Amino acid sequence: IAAGVAGTLFLGYCIYFDKKRRSDPDYKKKIRERRRRQRKIGSSGSRNEIPNLRDQEAVQ
What we know:
The protein is mostly helical and 60 residues long. Helices cover 72% and strands 0% of the residues.
């Protein structure tokens, strides 16, 4: 019974703070800025490709 009560309280805690976070007026603005930065970094950064595991030289 205690585990069920603790689980319910934890879930309520998560829902409450997620709602509070999303209701913040700057939430969408911050999300857009973060995605814009990630796109900029992702397009200019080097992409690490997985080598062909069947090719011994590529793996080394």
